[in-house]
Specification:
The protein is mainly alpha-helical and 678 residues long. It has 26 helices and no strands.
């Protein structure tokens, strides 16, 4: 197929020296017309007017100019390279067409250009230029291979490089260049695969660090396109990982709502995600957890809730077969719960539709066995109930023996146990009621101790044991009250007469756990508080007198003698805190006086700060306020005296006057005036 070299793409191509089209391809120049001589016999007579000859001269020269311009502007016809018959083409034509082909700058055209000129003999006069062009075109082919490599097409790059003629000096660079390309490509692929593996393991930090190794790999395709692709994958994987973690958190909380929300979150992960497979596994896991919830609802005999749960398990959980079998089993359970033979038989027929190849076939067969046994046990339990109807002890014992034949694990066992407990309670009541009746008679006659002994014959675990224990407690309390009431009354008499210590000793003789123990303890606490107040009040009164006399330290030492377990302890501690605060306020005011005596602005400001630290509830607060005003006026006078010499220092002194002082407003007016003077 002939190539078209007539319209090469010369954009962004370096200027190249092109061989001029061969002269033998240009059209031959037209021969000038031969001169025409008129016959001597008919010579024209030319006019001799100068106007005629002047006009003729202008016309002749104008025509010659036009003809000359036309000849100069007319381009020679260029050769049609695709139509050239190359075996007879000249060297200059081959070189010209080769240069046209090379300007297209494709591996195919460059190779075509090389083949056109390389066919000329080695001793051809144009061989130096030909060899130079072959070298240049081979170099361009290697550069094209590099461009393909950088663009991400390793196969095309290698194919381009291998097309370079072996006799070209550039060919010796081909194998090393291909080796370098393949090494870079292999290393980049290894880095990419490593990052992918780390993404699948959700090791996002390491995946990002691995991806950054592509930035200096030496290939623009891997450094840009593939690196951005990896970054996008890392971002997507991070988002998907967060969804998985949140879904697992919801699943761990349990409950239908959380599991449904977890599945919806996982379903947002797209198939192209590295975590898609894991997400699908989690959907199956969460779906199975929902199936377990449905099974638990069925165990509670909540048929509607069980079907509601299975109806929300998504198809992506791939549990359709299990759900279908479960729903059939749930329907069968709802029939078996009637506890009747027809209901059990209908349940058996329902689960028999679950075939051997179904996932819940084993469970269906187990239920069939249980329900068949239950049908037999229904008759056993009905027989036991018939035996118990007369109500005699022997009849009840026979009913219990019959009901105990129903094995554990049978659904009717729970109902049988309930009936057995009821019948056993009837037997025990019949056996123990005489003991309780005799005890009641003894208690009515006043013999409480005998009544307690008789009721105690009812053993723990018997049906009347709790009732008997309640009556024993009541009778015991009556006995204890009759024994301890005189002692509590005597203690109260002692307290009324003022002997609080004696009253406490008598009341404390009523032991813990006795009927009147709580009442006695309350009285002891009240009398103890009264006794402590009587003992400690004089000490606290004396401490207050010492404080009023100014001897707060002695007052504090005296009040501290009242222990933490005494009734007046809190009151004494409040007084101690007050006295200590007063001491502290006076100490602060004393320190302020000492600082103010120096009289410097800095020490006056320090004295003001100390005085302001005296608490508001302290007795020294009024004196502190008075001294703050006095020292503030001193600062103001010092500032005014300094203003005549140094406004900056005066402003600094006046700024130390506090807002709570009487001199503050005057100081602010002075400051405003001084600022305007600066």
């Amino acid at each position: 197929m002939a190539e078209d070299y007539r319209t090469p793409d010369r954009r962004n191509q370096p200027a190249k020296r092109r061989v001029r089209p061969p002269q033998d391809s240009l059209p031959a120049a037209e021969s000038p017309a031969a001169p025409i001589h008129a016959p001597k016999s008919r010579r024209l007579r030319l006019p001799r007017s100068w106007l005629f000859w002047g006009g003729a001269t202008v016309i002749v020269f104008s025509g010659l100019g036009i003809l000359s311009a036309t000849a100069l502007l007319r381009l020679p016809n260029l050769p049609d390279c695709p139509a050239v018959f190359w075996p007879t083409a000249s060297a200059s034509l081959r070189l010209y067409c080769a240069q046209l082909a090379a300007e297209r700058r494709t591996p195919k055209d460059l190779l075509r250009a090389i083949s056109l000129v390389d066919a000329l003999p080695q001793d051809h006069p144009l061989r130096p230029e030909i060899n130079h062009n072959i070298q240049q075109w081979s170099t361009e082919m290697l550069a094209l291979g590099e461009e393909s490599f950088q663009a991400g097409d390793l196969k095309e790059a290698i194919a381009t490089a291998k097309k370079i003629p072996k006799d070209s000096s550039v060919y010796q660079q081909v194998e090393p260049k291909i080796g370098a390309w393949e090494a870079v490509w292999s290393k980049a692929e290894g880095i990419y695969q490593q990052a992918e593996g780390e993404l699948k393991e959700q090791n996002l930090r390491q995946a990002f660090q691995t991806a950054t190794q592509l930035l200096g790999i030496g290939n623009q395709f891997w450094e840009n396109t593939k690196y951005r692709e990896l970054n996008d994958l890392i971002t997507t994987t991070r988002l998907d990982s967060n969804k998985i973690d949140k879904a697992k958190g919801l699943s761990d909380q349990g409950g239908l709502t959380n599991l449904v929300a977890a599945i919806k979150l996982i379903e947002e992960i797209q198939p192209e995600s590295y975590l898609f497979s894991r997400a699908q596994d989690l959907i199956s896991k969460f779906g199975r957890a929902m199936l377990d919830l449905a099974d638990a609802a069925l165990d509670r005999r909540d048929y509607d809730q069980a079907l509601k749960i299975t109806g929300q398990i998504p198809d992506k959980a791939k549990l359709q077969n299990e759900i279908r079998d479960f729903n059939m089993i749930a329907e069968a359970h709802s029939q078996a719960w009637s506890g009747t033979v027809p209901g059990l038989e209908a349940a058996i027929v329902a689960v028999q539709r679950i075939k051997r190849d179904r996932p819940l076939y084993g469970k269906a067969q187990l239920l069939i066995s249980l329900w068949q046994a239950e049908i037999q046990d229904v008759a056993v339990l009905d027989r036991a109930k018939q035996l118990a109807q007369p109500g005699a002890a022997g009849d009840l014992s026979a009913a219990i023996a019959a009901a105990q034949r129903i094995p554990y694990g049978n659904p009717l066992r729970q109902q049988a146990e309930k009936s057995i407990q009821q019948w056993q309670a009837q037997i025990e009541t019949a056996e123990d009621q005489p003991y309780l009746d005799r005890a009641e008679q003894m208690a009515s006659s006043g013999n409480l101790q005998a009544a307690i002994s008789e009721a105690s014959r009812i053993s723990p675990g018997r049906s009347l044991y709790n009732q008997a224990g309640q009556r024993i407690d009541e009778w015991t309390s009556q006995i204890q009250r009759s024994q301890d009431q005189p002692q509590l009354d005597r203690a109260r008499q002692l307290a009324s007469s003022g002997d609080l210590a004696g009253a406490i000793r008598v009341a404390q003789q009523i032991g813990t756990g006795r009927a009147l123990a709580s009442e006695a303890e309350t009285e002891v606490e009240r009398w103890s508080e009264q006794l402590q107040q009587t003992q400690d009040q004089p000490r606290l009164v004396q401490a207050r007198q010492l404080a009023r006399q100014g001897n707060r330290e002695a007052a504090i030492r005296l009040a501290e003698q009242i222990g933490s377990d005494r009734a007046l302890y809190q009151e004494a501690q409040a007084e101690i805190q007050t006295w200590r605060g007063q001491n502290q306020g006076e100490d602060q005011l004393t320190q302020a006086y000492n600082a103010a005596r120096i009289g410097s602005p800095a020490m006056l400001a320090t004295a003001i700060d100390m005085a302001n630290q005296v608490p508001d509830d302290n007795s020294a607060r009024a004196e502190a306020d008075r001294m703050v005003d006095q020292w503030s006026y001193q600062l103001l006078r010092l500032a005014q005296a300094q203003a005549d010499f140094n406004l900056t220092d005066a402003i600094g002194i006046a700024n130390q006057i506090p807002a709570n002082s009487a001199a503050y407003d005057a100081a602010q007016r002075e400051l405003q005036a001084w600022h305007q003077r600066r």
